[in-house]
Amino acid sequence: MQPTDLDRVAAIEAAAYEFPWSRATFLDCMRAHYECDVLVGAGNIVGYGVLSWGAGEAHILNVGVAPIEQGYGHGRRIVMRLIGLARWLRCARIYLEVRPSNRRAIALYESVGFNELSRRPNYYPTKRGREDAIVMAMELLPEEE
To answer: What is the pLDDT of residue 46?
Structure first.
């Protein structure tokens, strides 16, 4: 992801999510040196992912795919790229949060090896209040003996 990509990334985010990240939030992630990637298809950005890492752990902060491009495996490609980066960075574990109402995302994360670890009460805003977050995790490296 480059600064010139931010308008398109923010537009996808706004189209894909009811409570989207702002363009400034993506810029802050870039400035913090998080791994911010875009997925390009037919010359256009169709999705993106943001990964933070430190102390042997990684955290998928955001994955988005343009609504018109959903259902073609782009989300899986982005998630697998972020998992690969976490492995390359020698992270032992990778985490994410997901809305319980986002069944498609949960199914994707479970299919690549994430498991529910816990819940964060009232984590996400909704039109009618708050929604919990499911915290999911995946071990990336075998534990040393």
So the answer is: 98
